[in-house]
């Protein structure tokens, strides 16, 4: 059958072909077998299938079309230009190679795939390495092997079980990754990575669960959990809850609800938490603002620490400025340039150049250059100052205040 400009296979026929020097037209429910070992069919022109056809061989063509139905290739499939499957699915048991693959329903590839552009209206499932410039899937994308692409867009669910190298990942629903490298990640629902992830930006509407990694900014509407350390990150902005495994290092964290870190946390810029923050280690940042409760082994800030409720750090609190809110409490020694204790708050030992205790607050020991104690306050220990002490009415001091000559005499040389 070689040498023909056009080969026609009738509906329901089973034929054996080798080289087709022209176009191949295949009817409904036909079976094509190849010549040689392994079986092979080479079409110099276009291979056109009406639908529901099977090719039991490796198939090569300039272009492959299936107008209305499914095409199954039991071998490798190679098209120099385009593969187009209308109103049907494509299944390839071997490798897939083409410039453009456009399938309306489902695409299954058992072997390695290398295309420039893959567009699937329904689901895409690959079992080996899949390489593409762009992949667009309307439903579900399942990749059992490595996936390498510049851009991947999925309307529903993406399950990527192999290592990934993706510049841009956009998923409407849920995305699960085994790990690897991604540039920009945009997921409408939830994101889960079971292995280490290197990323540029992550933007997720619902929840994110990571195994650890490093990258840029993370923006999550609901919950962020990292079960492994985040070696480095940009800014984390989360509406609900954040749980990190320490040590973690980054630029900044802003959390509407709560923050929990199992280990040390180091930030080059700010920490802002609307609710509570618990750090099972040291906390270092440029500035710290917590609306509710902050607990850590040690807390240090280059600029300021402001806590509305409880600030607990047995290892000490250091900053340029420290403030505890109305009815708040500080547990642990404080060293700063300026400390302001809001009304009815309770603190322990404070070393600072400038100390202000507002009305009805309580302290244990105060060591400062300038100390201002408003009415109704109680100090149960020492009050030592260098330059000035102002005490309003109805203040209770357990001991007589003592003026010293030098800041070093009361340990102020160690204040930050």
Residue-averaged pLDDT, rounded?
96
Helical percentage: under 10%
* Sheet/helix structural class: mainly beta
**Low-confidence parts:** none
Give the terminus-to-terminus CA distance: 90 Å
Count of DSSP E strands? Answer: 50
Describe what you observe in this structure.
This protein is mainly β. The protein has a domain at 1-111. Helices cover 0% and strands 64% of the residues. The strands form two sheets. It has a 47-stranded parallel beta sheet that branches. It is rod-shaped, with a radius of gyration of 34 Å. The N and C termini lie far apart (90 Å). The model has no long low-confidence stretch (mean pLDDT 96).
Write the layout of secondary structure elements.
Blueprint (H helix, E strand, L loop, with lengths): L5 E4 L4 E4 L1 E2 L2 E4 L4 E4 L5 E10 L3 E4 L1 E9 L4 E3 L3 E3 L2 E4 L4 E3 L3 E8 L2 E4 L3 E8 L2 E4 L3 E8 L2 E4 L3 E8 L2 E4 L3 E8 L2 E4 L2 E8 L2 E4 L3 E8 L2 E4 L2 E8 L2 E16 L2 E5 L2 E8 L2 E5 L2 E3 L2 E4 L3 E3 L2 E4 L1 E4 L3 E2 L2 E4 L2 E4 L2 E3 L4 E8 L4 E3 L2 E8 L7 E9 L4 E2 L1 E9 L4 E2 L3 E9 L4 E2 L4 E2 L13
């Amino acid at each position: 059958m070689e040498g023909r400009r056009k080969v026609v296979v009738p509906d329901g026929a089973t034929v054996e072909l080798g080289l087709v020097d022209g176009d191949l037209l295949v009817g409904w429910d036909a079976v094509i077998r190849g010549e040689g070992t392994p079986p092979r069919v080479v079409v110099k022109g276009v291979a056109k299938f009406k639908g529901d056809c099977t090719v039991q061989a490796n198939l090569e063509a300039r272009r492959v079309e299936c107008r209305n139905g499914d095409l199954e290739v039991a071998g490798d499939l190679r098209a120099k230009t385009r593969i187009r499957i209308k109103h049907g699915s494509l299944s390839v048991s071997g490798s897939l190679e083409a410039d453009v693959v456009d399938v309306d329903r489902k695409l299954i590839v058992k072997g390695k795939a290398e295309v420039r552009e893959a567009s699937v209206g329904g689901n895409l499932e690959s079992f080996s390495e899949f390489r593409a410039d762009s992949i667009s899937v309307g439903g579900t994308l399942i990749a059992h092997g490595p996936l390498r692409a510049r851009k991947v867009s999925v309307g529903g669910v993406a399950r990527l079980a192999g290592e990934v190298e993706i510049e841009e990942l956009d998923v409407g629903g849920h995305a699960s990754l085994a790990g690897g490298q991604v540039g920009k990640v945009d997921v409408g629902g939830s994101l889960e990575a079971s292995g280490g992830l290197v990323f540029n930006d992550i933007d997720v509407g619902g929840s994110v669960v990571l195994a650890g990694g490093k990258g840029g900014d993370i923006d999550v509407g609901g919950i962020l959990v990292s079960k492994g350390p985040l070696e480095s990150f940009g800014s984390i902005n989360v509406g609900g809850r954040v749980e990190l495994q320490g040590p973690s290092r980054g630029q900044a964290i802003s959390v509407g609800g709560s923050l929990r870190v199992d280990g040390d946390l180091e930030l080059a810029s700010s920490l802002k938490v609307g609710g509570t923050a618990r750090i099972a280690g040291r906390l270092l940042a440029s500035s710290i603002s917590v609306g509710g409760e902050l607990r850590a082994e040690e807390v240090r800030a280059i600029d300021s620490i402001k806590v509305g409720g409880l600030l607990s750090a047995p290892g000490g609190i250091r900053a340029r400025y420290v403030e505890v809110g109305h009815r708040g409490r500080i547990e642990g020694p404080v060293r700063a340039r300026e400390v302001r204790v809001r009304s009815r708050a309770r603190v322990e030992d404070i070393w600072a150049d400038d100390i202000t205790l507002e009305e009805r607050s309580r302290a244990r020991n105060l060591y400062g250059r300038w100390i201002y104690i408003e009415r109704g306050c109680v100090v149960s220990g020492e009050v030592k100052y260098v330059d000035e002490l102002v005490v309003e009415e109805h203040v209770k001091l357990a001991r007589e205040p003592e003026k010293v000559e030098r800041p070093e005499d009361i340990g102020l040389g160690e204040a930050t």
